[in-house]
Amino acid sequence: MQKKERHKRGFLRLGVMFAVSLVMAFIYFWIYTSVLGLELPKTAYLKKSNAQWGSKIEVLNSQLDRHDEALNMLQMRDDDIYRAIFGMNEIPAAVRNAGFGGVNRYEKYDLIDADGLLKNTAIRLDRMTKKTYVQSRSFDEVALLSKRAGDMASCIPAIPPIVPDKRKYRLSSTFGYRSDPFSGRSTMHKGVDFSMKPGNPVYATGDGVVESVGFEFFGYGNSVLIDHGFGYKTRYAHLKSIGVVEGMPVKRGECIGQSGNSGKSSGPHLHYEVLYKGRPVNPYNYYDLDMSPDEYSTLVQSTADASPKITLHPSHQKKVKGR
Fold it and tell me: Would you place residue 242 in the very low, low, confident or very high pLDDT band (cuts 50, 70, 90)?
């Protein structure tokens, strides 16, 4: 019995000592953290480790800033110089700066990254990877086109579309705003008009491929659109007859038709346009009307030994007959 009592008292003492220890530990913890404002060793270690990783991420972001600036400079050169030289359209900013759509691929960072630093860095890395890929593809396109750079000189529309014999034509309308001959309103004239008798030969002003051959009763009449590549296209309108078909390659100085008075026209003339990247530009900047007819003929003959026989495209024979 006494032995039992001793065991009871022993357990009781142990329980009291354990309870006192817990109380003392709590008091110590409270004084250490709340009163003295100190951190537990593990907390301090984790904070230190977190600060070190935060510093590394900050350094990484600084490096990303430099790389992003360098990449932006490459993009500016690409759009303003390299692609512009070869008449290529700029890559839209929406394509260059596109992120990754679809599922939230950064959701995993939300639970471990309270301040969002790691998540934002991951997003920047992904976007820069995408921008670098787009830029790399763009340089591939430029490199491929640069192999044809030797062809560029012959493709740019650099001669008048007619023999510049001032006895046979009159420059009746220039590029820019003018009073419309039908409505009298001020409208934009997208090309130049060479007033002349019907039947004068019309020549391609640069190497290219015939993109379209069309007829518009209330517009261009019989017209030819040539794609020269490198961003350039030319249009020849109000023709009497056409000697080319869609998809046909043509050389600078090759006769493509005859001047006329078809479509919406106030008199016999050739309407000539130069388009660059889809926008009309002043043809005057691309030819020299002061060259002599002999110089022009020599230039034309160097690319075409003889003018082809002019025949109207079958789809236009019925429309032009009787004009």
Answer: very high
